[in-house]
């Protein structure tokens, strides 16, 4: 059979990147939208944190089912269902005005978001040459920065007028994403040699649960995402409280920060291969230590200049770690069950994402509106993630033996 044309793969990757960027726009935009929402609904920091956390309950619950379905029925169907669910939730979020309904809708949105990373990773595993997989995965994950830019420019501009307009605008972009998936995704998943993949059930699902790396990466991403989502959730509120910034000023800083998210994501693949000679673990450990120190210094300084510098260093290092951990499965895990494996691994991310705003919101409330203690706690969580990364077994998947019995 003939190999799929490169230009089709380019459009396929662009389609995945758009969907990924919009999910990150959604995740980032809530941290700015929460400012007018707090004022409109008279929310406390704890209530605001709970609203942001509801998203991650749905995300966590649906992680493994969406990964398993990506392996069984194909990633295109899962991605269409997922983004369709997010689209409906986004439209309704712009209409309701009570805390309970907003929480329910964010929960449903999280259910939809769960299918995006698992199905996207499955597409990469099925359609991209092995040597290119880590770079393509890094490229896709770099759209977290693009999503941030969209959230803190287009999203924040609309939020500044009326926060509801931002969600209606996001819904329109989701429609575009669905159309692109219909057009550019292949009807049948194929491997890089152009041969149709056999059913994933030729490798039993038990292989996933016997692989220690799956659960080590799960734990590493859990503690890392406590940092990432705690940081993103409360960064706008910290600048408002500590430096008196309005939404416009916050948007400028966070837009620049979002660009660095993409830089950190894209540079990770290059640095691992060229500078660290394929030693993912060493790169991840150095980056996570830099991330933790930057977060702690950020919390302790009263200088706006130093806080911005530390924020930028944090963003570069934390996103480099995240992309490295999320790309590792392409080297360490069997392609046939990568959807299910990524689902479990990413569940660590979602649990961390759920815990982050809730824990940090509680700390902020307990310490009388002091954000610094919460950010120091995030730095400690980053160091814990580093200790977990030490446990990763880096033996390539091709040389590892599995007991299928």
Please describe the topology of this protein.
Blueprint: H1 6-41, H2 45-72, H3 75-93, H4 99-113, H5 115-127, H6 133-141, H7 143-161, H8 163-184, H9 206-210, H10 212-243, H11 247-275, H12 280-300, H13 304-327, H14 329-332, H15 338-366, H16 372-389
Helical content stands at over 70%
Please tell me the overall pLDDT.
81
Largest sheet: none
Strand content bin: under 5%
Under CATH, the homologous superfamily reads MFS general substrate transporter like domains
Structural class: mainly alpha
Second-tier CATH architecture: Up-down Bundle
Low-confidence stretches: 1-7, 189-197
Order of secondary-structure elements: HHHHHHHHHHHHHHHH
Number of strands: 0
Shape: globular
Number of helices: 16
- Here the CATH topology equals Growth Hormone, Chain: A
């Amino acid at each position: 059979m003939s190999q799929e044309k490169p230009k089709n793969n380019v459009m396929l990757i662009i389609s995945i990147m758009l969907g990924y960027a919009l999910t990150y726009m959604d995740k980032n935009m809530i941290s700015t939208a929460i400012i007018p929402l707090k004022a409109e609904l008279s929310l406390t920091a704890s209530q605001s944190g709970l609203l942001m956390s509801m998203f991650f309950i749905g995300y966590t619950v649906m992680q493994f089912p969406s990964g398993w379905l990506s392996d069984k029925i194909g990633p295109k169907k899962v991605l269409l269902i997922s983004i369709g669910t997010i689209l409906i939730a986004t439209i309704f979020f712009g209409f309701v005005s009570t805390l309970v309904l907003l929480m329910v809708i964010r929960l449903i949105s999280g259910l939809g978001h769960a299918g995006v990373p698992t199905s996207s990773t499955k597409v990469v595993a099925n359609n991209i040459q092995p040597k290119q997989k880590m770079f393509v995965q890094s490229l896709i994950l770099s759209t977290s920065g693009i999503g941030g830019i969209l959230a803190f420019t287009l999203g924040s501009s609309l939020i500044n007028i009326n926060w509801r307009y931002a969600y209606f605008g996001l819904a329109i972009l989701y429609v575009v994403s669905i159309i692109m998936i219909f057009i550019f995704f292949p009807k049948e998943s194929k491997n890089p040699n152009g041969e149709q993949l056999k059913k994933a059930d030729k490798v039993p699902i038990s292989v996933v649960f016997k692989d220690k790396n799956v659960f080590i990466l799960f734990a590493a991403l859990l503690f890392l995402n406590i940092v990432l989502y705690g940081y993103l959730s409360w960064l706008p509120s910290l600048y408002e409280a500590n430096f008196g910034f309005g939404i416009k000023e916050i948007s400028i800083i966070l837009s620049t920060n979002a660009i660095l998210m993409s830089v950190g994501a894209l540079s990770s693949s290059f640095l691992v291969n060229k500078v660290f000679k394929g030693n993912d673990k060493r790169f991840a450990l150095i980056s996570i230590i830099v991330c933790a120190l930057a977060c702690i210094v950020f919390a302790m300084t009263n200088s706006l200049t130093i806080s911005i510098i530390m924020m930028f260093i944090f963003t570069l290092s934390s996103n480099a770690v995240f992309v490295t951990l999320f790309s590792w499965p392409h080297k360490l895990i069997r392609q046939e069950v990568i959807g299910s494996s990524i689902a479990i691994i990413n569940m660590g991310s979602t649990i961390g994402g759920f815990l982050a705003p809730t824990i940090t919101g509680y700390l902020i409330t307990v310490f009388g509106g002091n954000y610094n203690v919460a950010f120091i706690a995030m730095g400690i969580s980053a160091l814990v993630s580093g200790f977990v990364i030490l446990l990763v077994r880096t033996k390539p998947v091709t040389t590892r033996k599995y007991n299928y019995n």
